[in-house]
Amino acid sequence: MATSAPKKITAPMVGSRKASDGDDKLVMLTAYDAPGARMASAAGADMILVGDSVAMVVLGYDDTLQVTVDDMAHHTAAVARAKPHSLIVGDLPWMSYHVSVEETVRNAATLIRAGAECVKLEGGRKRLPMIEALIDAEIPVMGHIGLTPQSVHTMGGFKVQGKKADSALELVEDAKALAHAGVFGIVLEGVPVRVAEMITAAIDIPTIGIGAGPHCDGQVLVYHDVLGIEDRFVPKFVRRYADLKSASIDALTAYADDVRTGAFPNDEESYHMGDSEADALGLYGSGS
Ligand code: KIV
User: Fold this and answer.
1) Residue 20: pLDDT band by 50, 70, 90 thresholds?
2) In the structure, what pLDDT confidence band is assigned to residue 231 with cuts at 50, 70 and 90?
3) 3-state SS of 108-143?
4) Beta carbon of 225 within 6 Å of any ligand 1 atom
5) Is 158 exposed, middle or buried (0-12, 13-18, 19+ CB in 10 A)?
6) How is residue 264 annotated by DSSP?
7) Does the Cβ of 146 fall within 6 Å of ligand 1?
């Protein structure tokens, strides 16, 4: 029996899902290209985040600060061409929403025109003017607070945030302000379990955790971490579900060996011409 295609997920659909209301937990994965998006969608991800983590896991940079709006639009367009059923979240890169409200809206529009169906940006209350302008421009916004990688230099490294009571309360206030402004969900990254639990209970939009414990309304992980492609630095919160780096190196080594020994390509992997044409060229015997 043919199975029907899964329903396209929208920002309002995500925004109405709360685990405390009995809804299923939300699943978000990053992806940066069409094959990755096809696989994430086939795996049933509710959301695909075209994250600025592309800088580190694909483009080889040491932090996320190096990618531009054009880089993000390039990867967003590749994901969109896969037509995933998952909601496509375009990540606004560093400096694309820090200078002015006008630049923020224009940069978000570039990601939307590339195929994103909403945008994500990092930061708490200080981002409210930008968030309000985006929502005014009919662009759904996802927030991101806690360990915000674009603040790596001000945080003094990729450090867990909200470990002290006063900083935890600041995060709760940030989350409430963002929810009040109309974001449809908030990524909580690198915060203690109890803080994520408090924030999740304090707002009626979903929280999506990464390094934020089990009480969030959903979870997000980076594609290359889940599949074991990235192994240079594996944060404590990552669970690997495959070891594709080793599997890929094994496969590529087998190919290299076959080329060197002449085992690849074989007859079935080669094209042939008819005998009469081969005769006309003066070629005899098999393998023509
Ligand atoms: O860019 C990214 O992958 C992210 C996730 C870590 C949430 O922002």
Assistant:
1) very high
2) confident
3) HHHHHHHCCCEEECCCCHHHHHHHHHHHHCCCCEEE
4) no
5) middle
6) S
7) no
Domains of the chain: 11-242 (3.20.20.60), 247-280 (no CATH)
Q: Retrieve residue 169's tokens.
A: 């309360």
What residue type is assigned to position 226 of the chain?
Answer: V
Is the torsion defined by CA of 174, 180, 182, 187 positive or negative? positive
Q: Is the CB of 122 under 6 A from ligand 1?
A: no
What are the E-state strand segments in 155-281? 185-189, 207-210, 218-221
Helix H or strand E encompassing 153: helix 152-155
Atom of ligand 1 nearest to the CA of 208: 7
Q: Regarding beta strands 218-221 and 207-210, do their DSSP bridges make them parallel or antiparallel, or are they unpaired? A: parallel
Which tens digits make up the pLDDT trace of 169-200?
Answer: 999 999 999 999 999 999 999 999 999 999 99
Distance CA 125, CA 242 (A): 38
**For ligand 1, mutation pick of 72, 144, 237 (most atoms within 8 Å of CB):** 144
- What is the Cα–Cα distance from 165 to 160, expressed in whole angstroms? 13
* Residue % of the chain over a pLDDT of 70: 97
- Residues 60-112 pLDDT 10s: 999 999 999 999 999 999 999 999 999 999 999 999 999 999 999 999 999 99
Q: Report d(CA 201, CA 183) in Å as an integer.
A: 16
